[in-house]
Design a protein that fits this description.
Blueprint: E1 4-11, E2 14-21, H1 28-40, H2 53-58, H3 62-69, E3 74-75, E4 77-82, E5 88-93, E6 96-100, E7 105-111, H4 117-122, E8 125-130, H5 136-142, E9 156-157, E10 163-164, E11 170-182, E12 185-197, E13 203-206, E14 209-212
Antiparallel strand pairs: 1-2, 3-13, 4-5, 4-8, 6-7, 7-12, 8-11, 9-10, 11-12, 13-14
Protein name: Flavin reductase like domain-containing protein
Domain Flavin reductase like: 69-212
Keywords: Oxidoreductase
Length: 218
């Protein structure tokens, strides 16, 4: 007597379980029902054509897009690094997220038009400081161009010489793993080398303003 094991076949999105002879030869029973499945399965619907959803995205209003993004509360970070010449640089970013736990990776987005863009492209390390409501004015300063951003703030240097905020809600030191183009921004992917947390609560950015945790949005 032949011995059988169950084998699963997927045909056009449907799943069927048929017997298979142990030596690898499919039974005529399985072949018969597989042919029936192929002939009776409904084809998927057609993709959108011109005049439908595709054109609606092409005609997107930039102001409407910004308004929609403003409805999503996000954390606020000050991202810092040190150039090869020893000068300190940084920018404010709310587009920050965890990417992977193993290996430990994060991502943050940098505007191509930022003054510090060339420095971060050449940097080997950078630091993400998750700021609190006490750093609101400092975060606004790091979001602008052309001023001495490090004149204020209680910055210290880590082992690699990059500036960090010891009183931040969290400090994440990274090695630049990859820089990925993304429209008018570049996605910096950092491999986390050190992470520490502070006593302060992080602040959020919502509808164009800061919103401390625990406060009710208007």
């Amino acid at each position: 007597m032949a011995l059988f094991t169950g084998v699963v076949y997927a045909a056009m999105g449907a799943r069927f379980v048929f017997p298979e002879i142990k030596h690898g030869t499919k039974s005529s029973f399985a072949s018969h029902w597989l042919m029936r499945a192929r002939s009776s399965t409904t084809l998927p619907p057609e993709l959108p054509t011109r005049g439908t959803m595709v054109d609606q995205f092409q005609e997107l209003d930039p102001a409407a897009f910004r308004s929609a993004l403003a409805q999503f509360p996000s954390g606020v970070t000050i991202v810092t690094t040190r150039s090869e010449a020893g000068t300190l640089h940084g920018f404010t970013a709310s587009s920050f997220a965890a990417l992977s736990l193993d290996p430990p990776l994060i991502l943050v987005c940098l505007d191509r038009g930022a003054d510090c863009f060339p420095v971060f492209m050449a940097a080997k390390h950078f630091v993400v400081n998750i700021v609190t409501d006490a750093h609101a004015d400092l975060a606004l300063k790091f979001a602008t161009k052309g001023e001495n951003k490090f004149a204020d703030g209680n910055f210290e240097l880590d082992e690699a010489g990059n500036p960090l905020l010891p009183d931040a809600a969290a400090v994440i030191s990274c090695e630049l793993e990859q820089a990925v183009p993304g429209g008018d921004h570049v996605i910096l992917i950092g491999r986390v080398r050190d992470a520490r947390t502070g006593a302060g609560k992080p602040v959020t950015w919502y509808r164009g303003g800061f919103l401390p945790l625990g406060e009710r949005a208007a």
